Structures are given as structure tokens and as C-alpha cells.
Amino acid sequence: MLVFNFKMMNKIGICCLMCLLVLFSSCKRYLDVKPKGNVIPETPEQYAILLHTQLDMIDKGVDETVIGNANTLMQLEFFSDNLDVALSSTINAGTPYYVGAKVNTTQMEYAVAFEKIRDYNVIIGNMADKESALAKKVLGTAYAMRAANYYNLMIRFCPPYETGNAEATLGLPLIDEFNMEAKPARANLKATVDFIAKSLREALSYNVEDKDYLFTTKVVKAYLAKLYFWTQDWDNAIKYADEVLNAYPMVSADRYVAMINSKLTPTENIIIRSYTTDSEDGTFIIASVKSDMVTRPVSKEFVETFTEKGNDIRYPNVINKKRINTKTITANLKSEEMCLILAEAYAHKNDNAQALNYLNRLRSKRITKDYIAYTEANLPNVYPQLIKVDATGKPLSKLISAILCERRKELYMEGDRWFELKRNGRPEFWAPYEGRKYTTQKFLYTYPIYKKDVNLNPGLIIQNEGY
């Protein structure tokens, strides 16, 4: 991904950087580091190595907290209702029967993400050069990756966003500098959202267009669209999603199969994705996930969302006759999600014409025969499923129901359904395992804060509900 000419780096610079990296690797917690008495990197090339390591992990498909990888997506799918636990052929450590079985694992996501946030803050706070072309790339990418990690933390470790109640809802500790002594308390959810938005805007100000750094301006705008969509700021969600969709056209039906089976080369609709560089570890993760996936069939309820069956290009290419998933699992962010954001945002604004416009734009690229555009007159009845209310708490309308159904089909096996359940009412459901009934209760949609941090940091004494 990023290539540096190490011969051009002087020996002092290399030694300084190695001292810092050794110091980092020996720390036990994400704030237990302060370079007292140590020389820290000085040049943008040296600071870029911190980013290079993480960008390389994304490229190789082993990243866990920024974009994610095949295994992290599989876990989310197993937590959701897309797959049928009752008909599993086997259940092992890789195939949890419900989210409660992975509580300890989810805590570690918190710790790992904050370790990465520490690195971004080292770059942002300590790199003296902020004007050179390379420095701007490094700073812009650091701000963007910090925001991406915070966004992922928010949707996992904070309750779903409720307009009018965000200031009274617990958010995350907001860390914008590298400081060992700092033990910040949890900010409220509104302040957390504002912090993420500010980091993304800072990233935009550096105008990173070098695709070697992955987090280009369009990628940052896609994250802004996702952030505003999650927080029900429909106008801003529309603004950014529209711009990104115009830059990344959706794939048509004849390109769909290429998209879902693409091993390394992203198709034209992919805004950012993992596993673009052939690597032994990334290949192993995907192979392992494939072996785990065949143990659990797709749920009958999900299969029945494909009302057009064979006319829908997705149906024969993601599920086989035994109801086993055949879609390649690759972490990505794609233009079709932007289109779905636009459809739902306009629906919440009661602009049904525009909502239908974007819903039909996607459907027309997936229904290959006998396609009939949706109108307000022919929208199907609200589909019977777990989700009963929309993100604002209102009963599902026919239009919102159709959009959510389309989203479920389009983003299937991309780790989206679990967060859609959380965003739309947190419905409770149960799974049978070894003669017992395990219920995904409302509180389980919000993961527990890392226990070691709660014990050591007085500002984190309030654990999430239910833990």
C-alpha cells in the first residue's frame, strides 16, 4: 500500500521510531503510554508508518475495527436474524448462537479501537510539519480513521440515537490528544456525534485524494452520510449520500455477480473495502468463514423477502437450494448503501416521490425480468418481520417497510442487519441451543464497555445497562 524509502531515513529517525513502536507494543492499555524521556518521530514519513501498518491490515483483510474483515462480519450476521440457529448443523466457537455468547469478545473491540485512536492522536498532536503534501495526507487520514473508529464504537457501545434525548444518553470517552494521565469520563451521545462529525470535517479540510491512503474525500463523505443517517439528521445524510452516489455509480445486474465474487479488485461501486491485496492471513480468514457459514442455513423468513425470486439477480447468487449462503463475505462500503440512505431519508422527510425514485433506481438494477417500479399505489403490504417500528419509533409504513426489505437483501452478509435491528426498535428474539432458549434482549444490542477500563477509570464507573 504505502511505500517508503527507508534508505532515505536517517539512522537517528529510524531508532526514534523503533523506540516509540516498542514502547507502544509494550503498553497494556490505550492510555498507558507517554513518551517521557523518549524521542518521538519527527518527519511525516516516520509518522506515516503508524498509518501504514493499519492501512496494510485493511488491504490484507485482517483489520478488525476500522472497516472490519470477513470474520467480524460473520459474527454480526450470526447475531442477527438472517440465519437460522435452530437448523444449524453444528455450533462452535466461530458460530455463536446469539450475541450474549460473545460478550467478552465484544468488550475487546472497545480496547483495540482505542489503541488505534491513540496512534491517530499521536500523529495529530505531535507531528510538527502540517503543511507539506505528505503531512496533509497523513493528517487527513489520521482524522478520518479516528472518526471511523469512533463511529464504529458509537454504534456498538452506545444506545441507538434518539432525537431530543441524545444529551441525556451516555456516549463515549472523547480523546483528542495523547496523554497518559487523562482518564476521561463518558461524554453524552450528542457530544460524541459532534466529535465524530468534527473529526470527519477536519479530514475533509486536508483534501486527501491519494487512493493509497484509502480514506479519500469521497470515503470521508460516505462516513458523514452514515453518521447523519444513524443520528436522523436526514438533510445532511441526503447531502453527503447524494454526492457520493454521483461519484460511485451502482452496478447493474450484469455486474452484480462480479461484485459479490470479486476477490481482490473492487468493482466500480465500491467506495472502500478490505482485502484488496492477496495475503495469506486474509485468505485464511475468508476460507475459515466459508467453512463456518455452511453450518447455518439462511432463515426461511429472509428467503421469503425475495418476492420476485428468480427475477431478482440476488436470489440465485447468494443462497443455494439448501438455503446455504454462497455470497463472498468482504467488508466494504458501497454506493448502493448511499442510495438506500437517500431513499429512507427522503421517506422520513415525507418526500415520497424522491424516496420512491431512489428505491426504484436500486430495484431496477436487481430485478432482471418483469420489473415493475413501485408507486404509492402498488407498494406491498408491510412485510411481517422482527422490525415493527422505524428509527423514529413510528409503526412501519409501506414505504419504509419496502426500503428496509430492500436494504436487507442488498446488504445481506455485509454486517448490516444487526445494526438495522438496533436502529429500528431493538426487537427481542430468541434462539434454541442445547435444549435452552436464549433471548436477544434489548440491552444486548449495546455492548458492554471494556471491564478493565471501567475498573481503572473513575470516569467510566457507569457501565452500560444490563451488564
Summarize the structure.
With 467 residues, the chain is mainly α. 47% of the residues lie in helices and 5% in strands.
Protein model, in words:
By secondary structure, this protein is mainly alpha-helical. The protein has one domain (6-456): Alpha Horseshoe (Serine Threonine Protein Phosphatase 5, Tetratricopeptide repeat). The chain is built from 17 helices and six strands. It has helices at residues 11-26, 44-59, 70-79, 103-126, 133-157, 189-205, 217-230, 234-247, 253-261, 280-293, 300-303, 315-318, 335-348, 352-363, 398-410, 417-423, 451-456; strands at residues 170-173, 186-188, 270-273, 332-334, 429-433, 436-440. The strands form three sheets. The protein has a two-stranded antiparallel sheet with strand order 1-2. Strands 3-4 form a two-stranded antiparallel ribbon. Strand 5 (429-433) and strand 6 form a beta hairpin. Helix 2 packs antiparallel against helix 4, helix 8 runs antiparallel to helix 13 and helix 13 runs antiparallel to helix 14 (352-363). The radius of gyration is 22 Å and the shape is globular. The chain starts with 10 loop residues before the first helix and ends in an 11-residue tail after the last helix. Residues 1-38 have low confidence and may be disordered. InterPro entries: SusD-like_N, SusD_RagB_dom, TPR-like_helical_dom_sf. Residues 337-467 form the RagB/SusD domain. This is SusD family protein. It is found in: Cell outer membrane. Residues 30-228 form the SusD-like N-terminal domain.
